[in-house]
Amino acid sequence: MLFKISLDKTAIAITVLFTLSFACIIATEYLIASDVNIVRPLCVTVIFLLLYGLAFAFHPTAYKVTPDALIICRLIRNVRIKHTTIKSIAIVDKKEINGAIRTFGVGGVFGYYGCFANYTLSSMTWYATRRDKAVLITTTYNKKIVVTPNEPADFIAALSV
Question: pTM higher than 0.70 for the full model?
Answer without folding.
Answer: yes
